[in-house]
């Protein structure tokens, strides 16, 4: 049985932005140093830039912590003996949560260590279902939340006679801009990272369209889905749109200067900015003729899980590390280095400040997409939307549209049929 299916889809909130996730009691004394001096391993296979940011965070913690050191390893969670904690996402997280319980709930870890866990009163349904139990308590900590936004290479716009400050806001504007770029000789006007997540799940939520129907089944073959995919297919044929893979390959193409526009998670900014050109960021495009647009997008990302069966000293060090991670200074450094969303209110306020507004503007745009409009029954995140098996089917069928010319309606009908045949709910 998949443990994920037992987790109530009350997500770790963007009430993370409305109330602190962790706060030490005012009367509490600093925790005593851990008795053990052995290194405490956290394993992770984050992308290189995120891994480097995590290593820097751990180094700062180790300098301030009078006790055991935390060490970061780059390995799969099931490659050898389990680490004291692991950062997991996608298929690796799904496998970790399948079968016997391999983790100690984070709320228990911090409670035993004397760190108060403040559960937000209002959980947000726009964060993909993660490690939250039926009582709203954290089982794991989502450390890398992200949602898709729109990037442009302002230098390419300027060079080809387009206003670099005019980031397209609607799909019609994107089409018009792509056409002008093609006419100017730009080989790749637009590319999209994580196309199944962006073009189906998030575009649906942004337009208040259900991704999952009342029966709990994926329902991506309605008229609005077909219309959107058919438009994307026509763009791909005319080379307005180019696709490079199911993950973040498109981000590298944009960073290289090959593509003028990019739709990708806001966490792509650190890599995208390595291209050395000016970048404009705006919200995900929307259709003006769809009632209810724009609604909200959905956030997902890797989470920290603490292994079961460790010593009290290890748990105490991990709890202190989590508390350290949530300090405002660390939050700012983490957001700057990774592009991930803030983990609590302090991080959100920092990202919204005038001092950091320009540097972290992409994060504020992402947060606004998530919380500016209250989510509806149609626009909420679902377990199926973050299921690796569901995403694989959707990507397969999208590939058949891009590479084989399959009709949008047929591809989406077959995607729905295949997912239902898998029995995933």
TrEMBL record:
The keyword Signal applies. Keywords: Signal, Transport. Residues 1-23 form the signal peptide. The keyword rRNA-binding does not apply. It is found in: Periplasm. It holds the Pfam family SBP_bac_8. Its main location: periplasm. InterPro entries: Bact_solute-bd_prot1 (IPR050490), SBP (IPR006059). Belongs to the bacterial solute-binding protein 1 family. The complex is composed of two ATP-binding proteins (UgpC), two transmembrane proteins (UgpA and UgpE) and a solute-binding protein (UgpB). This is sn-glycerol-3-phosphate-binding periplasmic protein UgpB. It comes from Niveibacterium microcysteis. The lineage of its organism: Bacteria, Pseudomonadati, Pseudomonadota, Betaproteobacteria, Rhodocyclales.
